[in-house]
Amino acid sequence: MPAPTRPPETPAEAVAELQAGNERFVSGSPRHPNQDAGHRAAVAGEQHPFAVIVGCSDSRLAAEIIFDRGLGDLFVVRTAGHTTGPEVLGSVEYAVTVLHTPLVVVLGHDSCGAVAAAGAVAAGGLRPAGHLGAVVDAVLPSLRHAAAQGIGDPEGIIDVHIAQTVNELVGNSAVLAAEIAAGRCAVVGMSYQLNAGRVRTVASVPRSL
Ligand SMILES: [Zn+2]
């Protein structure tokens, strides 16, 4: 077992750690760090996750697996289409202010069903019944942003929705914006390819970490 290393403390260090883990996952050589019984006991008393993941609920987008991390590493908030309602914002604010997590990642992916559902409504289809309509409502503004920019390809639309989610987090959470302004936190949008397993950075606040 490799010697324990110091957890990331800055936004840039946290991004690098996630990218390194994703590279291990993509190449088929994951280390599965922090998943053993000893670490489970070590983190039972308190948590210091180095990244918040605001991700889509898609079953193929399991954060700890695709970033090759373990217990206590990632504070994960998932909804279909990575929406930004008040409970999501509150969860992010808890992580960055109480747990002092230095990075928030918006994690979207290709072939996202929530984006497809919103696209069907935007094309004239019926708004889904029940609470699924709220998911569609949350994604629709991103589709309008993409259309306004002349972006119509599926990958481009996903990128716009991820960037829009980054902007919504920062724009709707004064707490998060203050942490960013103080240099203690950053928000990065990443797009995940279901087939290749690779994440690609598509947006960040601030622009350079
Ligand atoms: Zn999705």
TrEMBL record:
Needed cofactors: Zn(2+)
Substrates-to-products reaction catalysed: hydrogencarbonate + H(+) = CO2 + H2O
GO molecular function terms noted in the UniProt entry: carbonate dehydratase activity; zinc ion binding
Cross-referenced InterPro entries: Carbonic_anhydrase, Carbonic_anhydrase_CS, Carbonic_anhydrase_sf
Enzyme class name: lyase
UniProt KW Metal-binding keyword: yes
Family: Belongs to the beta-class carbonic anhydrase family.
Name this protein carries in UniProt: Carbonic anhydrase
Species this protein is from: Micromonospora rosaria
Source taxonomy: Bacteria, Bacillati, Actinomycetota, Actinomycetes, Micromonosporales
